[in-house]
User: Fold this.
Amino acid sequence: MEYDWSSLDELRTTYLEGTAGQGDYWASDELLRGYDVTFARRIAWKWHHVFRDLAGVSWTPPAGAVYDWGCGTGVAAREFLTAYPGAGLTGVSLHDRSRRAVGFASAAVRREFPDMPVMAAEPEGPFTLLISHVVTELKEAGMAELLKLADRAAAVVWVEPGTSVASAQLVKAREALRESFYPIAPCLHRNRCGLLAEGHENDWCHFFATPPPEVYTDRDWVQFGRIMGIDLRSLPLSYLVLDRRAPVAPVPGAVRIIGKRRLYKGHALLDACDATGVHERRFTKRTDPLLFRAMNKGKTSTLQQWTLEGNEVTSLKEI
Ligand SMILES: C[S@@+](CC[C@H](N)C(=O)[O-])C[C@H]1O[C@@H](n2cnc3c(N)ncnc32)[C@H](O)[C@@H]1O
Assistant:
């Protein structure tokens, strides 16, 4: 593919330097096109990770419209509508401070979902709010406005980079909204976030999506990784899903494993979150050698059901 690599590189620099919030940076359709097949694809893979987690807790979207706020090229709406073909039957709304981005996203949604009504305004009826990779561009007032909008939604699906800053913003949002909504994922409870307890100042809630194998073999992806200086294997994300409807009852003993698993020769240390808070637990290889090996390869689900003796996991099963 032939893209304007230098504009994409400049865009990445503004993201890394935290200056992207200063103004509309979508200077051309070409830049949007380049973003859509590179950065936005990587974001799509993070959404796929969230969809898998949502299937694990049997969540499906409520009836109503889909509203992609800060839509960029509309990747969140397009992936969501693909994952949930029954969603957005009353329409898809797209919002961005950039008119060019809304135009691009609208055309892309129309192309992929020709029967779907597409609007550029807040939906009138109930809606699922999609937010993707926006918080780092918002100042306090922008975040307050977004939380007000979230409080009008039937459900919120919010995906951000897996950085401590983005995760802290999601924890804040969760605290602001948890009285009106049920957290559905990654949280398995509605209590105050366990990361706000003393001793967790350096921890953050994040996960790792798996890119498809072609990123290692496809010439364009290899070139993209090299030019941008991006390690294509690494796709950390933070996310939050809220719903007005109560979740399907959680399996007893269910825990969400957050962050990096710390793997040693014969055991792993896992940070597990449930209604009692976030705790470090020890899982030894001899408890379940097959699962231990799968964990070593990063192939285990973040949702597990276990029994404990003290801090030691004595049985573990993927949900
Ligand atoms: C990193 S891009 C993410 C785009 C898209 N959601 C995605 O996941 O690919 C951030 C988007 O947020 C938009 N944005 C930033 N601040 C905004 C604001 N205050 N109101 C609306 N959109 C905003 C930008 O124009 C940009 O399209």
Summary: Residues 39-56 form the longest helix (18 residues). The chain is about 35% helix and 25% strand. Residues 151 and 177 are 7 Å apart (CA to CA). The longest strand covers residues 254-263.
